[in-house]
Amino acid sequence: MRLFEFQTEPPVAAVVRDYKAKGYEIIGRGASAMVLGSDSSNDVIKVGPKGDCWLNVAKAKSSNPHLPKVSSLEMVGDHYVATVEKLRPVKETFFKTGLFQCIAAWLYVNANWQNGKDVYLGKYNADAIKQMSDNLEEGRPDMVSALKVIMGCKASCNFDMHPDNMMRRPSDNTLVFQDPLTHQG
């Protein structure tokens, strides 16, 4: 039950105010969404506009372990409010690992992720990139399955794979693609 009246303030401001009153604070902001968290909760609250590409992934309701677990999703005015599992950041060094290079290679080969080539794979030739992509297919089919879900949700969005959008599940250290899409241009 909400503690606000839509007539007195914009719905998204009221949602944020409600959660702040419950001990949540803003712990992150992206280009269009914000994340609220509390030390006493194992979930975070993500609030963003209906047009946010992340909503495509949340609506996919995948049980893949490499996608975030969304326990509730509601529309409030022109915004969504999602309750999502609390994850922890990956270490910056992860983006220099072979696993991440294989993820970037797979996205480059299978989803035309140009930024992956430019930023993460520039020192590799086409054969090496193809081999890394194949290695991910063979060794981590669960991860490839998650990437395919993301590709299916892509629509008019770009991949947004960077340190803040790849996290780990605290319970088992599983890599999670938590906000892998952004609007184009």
Features:
alpha+beta; 36% helix; single chain; 10 strands; 2 domains; 185 residues; 6 helices
Mean pLDDT: 86
Order of strands, main sheet, comes to: 1-2-3-5-4
Principal-axes geometry comes out as elongated
Work out the count of structural domains.
2
Helical region count?
A: 6
Overview of this structure, please?
- This protein is elongated.
- The protein has 2 domains: 11-86, 2-Layer Sandwich (Phosphorylase Kinase, domain 1), CATH 3.30.200; 92-183, no CATH class.
- The protein has helices spanning 11-21, 54-60, 98-111, 114-120, 126-139, 141-153, and strands spanning 25-29, 34-37, 43-49, 70-76, 79-85, 88-89, 157-159, 166-168, 175-177, 181-183.
- The longest helix has 14 residues, at 98-111.
- Helix 3 crosses helix 5 (126-139) and helix 3 (98-111) crosses helix 6 (141-153).
- It is an alpha+beta fold.
- A hairpin with a 5-residue loop joins strand 2 (34-37) and strand 3.
List the helices and strands and how they pair.
Layout: H1 11-21, E1 25-29, E2 34-37, E3 43-49, H2 54-60, E4 70-76, E5 79-85, E6 88-89, H3 98-111, H4 114-120, H5 126-139, H6 141-153, E7 157-159, E8 166-168, E9 175-177, E10 181-183
Antiparallel strand pairs: 1-2, 2-3, 3-5, 4-5, 6-8, 7-10, 8-9
Helix pairs in contact: 3-4, 3-5, 3-6
Write a brief caption for the model.
The chain is α+β, with helices and mostly antiparallel strands and 185 residues long.
